[in-house]
Amino acid sequence: MTSRAGVKLALVYFKMGLSPLILNLITVIFEEPKLTQIMKLENSRKNCFRILAFAGLISTSIVSAQEWKGYSSASKAEQETLESTFLKTVDFPKFKEHLKTLTAKPHVSGTKANEEVADYMVSVMENAGMKVEKYPYDIYMTSTGGSSVVELVTPHRMPLNQREDILKEDRFSSDPTLEKGWNAYSGSGDVTSTVVYANYGTKEDFEKLVEMGVDIKGKIVIARYGKNFRGFKAKFAEQFGAAGLIIYTDPADSGYTKGLVYPEGHNFNESAIQRGSILTTDYEGDPLTPFEPSLPLDGKKKIKRLDPSETTLHTIPVLPLSYGSAKEIIGKMKGAVVPSGWQGGLPYTYRLDGGDELTVRLKVDQPKEFVRINNVVGTFKGTTYPDEWIILGCHYDAWAFGATDPNSGTAMLLSLSETIGKLVKSGNGPKRSILIAHWDAEEHGVIGSSEWVEQKRDELDAKAVAYLNFDGGVSGKNFGASSAPSLKNLVTEMAQKVDYPYTEKTLYDQWRGNKEEPSIGNLGGGSDHIAFYMHVGVPSLSGGAGGPTLYHTNYDSFNFYEKFVDPEFQMGGTIEQWTGLMTLRMANAEVIPYDVERYATDLKGHFANAVEKIKKYDEGFGGFDKVEQSIAVLEKNAEGLTSAIKTALASGKLSKKEIKDVNKQLLALEKSFIDEKGMYFGSWYKSLYASTDPFSGYASWILPGLEYEISSSSTERLEEWDERYSAAIADLADKMLKLTQSIS
């Protein structure tokens, strides 16, 4: 027994951070056998609560509010042991080893170097004990930028640099296979014309130019990166009549105005060029096979492909430049001064146009053809529920070396394959199947993963528990995550079980900072979760650690990573621990551990936010009555389902057959938001809950049907959306009720 005074004193010492005193206190008030066990624990401040909990001074629920959804008491105890073993099994140095190998050469999708990366991954995964398959597709694209020129013609001829400087401090920068800057899916053409500056090249920026009387037709537009997806800059430039587009990174956004530049600092130097795809269709994946997988042309199954003329591929030439080259254009412009907010960081007054004397030549010859790509997918087959899949993924193709984007995530997943493989070989195989996927051609437009989802659509509907995405997942020391509602508790709970390597805190506490709890973002666009979440309705999350990046430049090398991103190489193992815990927690639960109550909580907030936006342009708007009624029912049914599952697991009354049926019904929950009609901005986007922002290409649109109306200040279809959303929510609530009744 312990005294209340002793407990109180121990807690006071904890708040002071004096963990040795706590141990001394425990020495006095506890008997020797228990003391011996306690003293084996790590003597650090972050473990004081754990020490007190072990000693029985405080409840273990205070240490970590783990709900253990989906587990019975017996399976929980077994899983706790497994998770502890897993954390100890993670081999931290492996991350560095894999990252160094993956980034040895530039490896753009479709190149031999990228095939070598794929072969390396296959070897690692097979050695770990996974069954590995390659999924080939023939994509209409290019694996090279072709030929290109950008030069001043008048008043003086001057060719402009299109490639990063070779730096003595970075041996990777002299690699002979590094290419000029290029934008995938640029049109081909050779244009000489005068110049217009369009700020960030957003739709609003182009409209502002027209409003100010600036003639865009036939001109070469120069716009800076930022605010929206680069493909929309090209789309709007073409729509407003431009003959060509140059996109550059302004130092106001990443460069010397932000701090020291590479190689002295982590900001863009004057030769750094952001590459990237400008593919802008109203669907994801191969531009010639919407809704269908772009299976090999020489395969048995033939897929009907569009003619390129039937697509919305860009026709004007588009090239990226560094600010060191862009300044040669901007510094010579003589037109009217730009409006407030358009001034960048170069040491010139920014002008709307260059006048008649300044002409620029822009030439791009980028012929497209069918290019073979390969997804690499490894599987640890489940011992109990092999047809229920936990899917993890990251792409492996890169614009150059790709040390942060994407291969920090690739390296982490390879190491995780090896760690789980060790558990499997020791007889601790997962109950559900774990699939680890490495996607190809993501940088060309999220292509590899989209084609796989289209190919596996029916299987994913029946088997996919969750998709976890780790694109660039270890590209810094700042942790964060975005998630579907049903996975948010998993994200936070597993972060509580992992130590952050650079402070005396858990990953969770480091993440939340001074807040009561961390904020979890909403999934947007720009990566491989899109098709899973927004096309077929698989609960998804994206997370990891971010930080400084020389995004899509030739400098995103191993040298940059070890100098500026994580010199101690501790975050790879840390993120692997977090990822592995989430994976194993889902894989081994008797009942899939979704947080079904989070749907109603989040939906109430999202609809309140939407109503507030609508009232800004329609003061008399009364809200979504049908939706409110459906959410009220959903909230009640979710509480009932949570209670029923918890009671059933505690009683141990569920048979294996009943558990299988329960999980089958749980897999169907997210599908309530999949609407075959899809969105008005693109029927490929079928989720009513979330989509990519079709105007920025990156941001998340929660309740995208409403956001599309709000974007144009429209009230025309609000009644329709009240019907469609309330029907979806009612369907979700009904599924929960039926599942509750089947358990009770």
From TrEMBL:
Residues 375-559 form the Peptidase M28 domain. Residues 191-259 form the PA domain. The keyword Metal-binding does not apply. Coiled coil: none annotated. CDD domains: PA_GCPII_like (cd02121). Residues 624-735 form the Transferrin receptor-like dimerisation domain. InterPro entries: PA_dom_sf (IPR046450), PA_domain (IPR003137), Peptidase_M28 (IPR007484), Peptidase_M28B (IPR039373), TFR-like_dimer_dom (IPR007365), TFR-like_dimer_dom_sf (IPR036757). Belongs to the peptidase M28 family. M28B subfamily. This is N-acetylated-alpha-linked acidic dipeptidase. It comes from Flagellimonas zhangzhouensis.
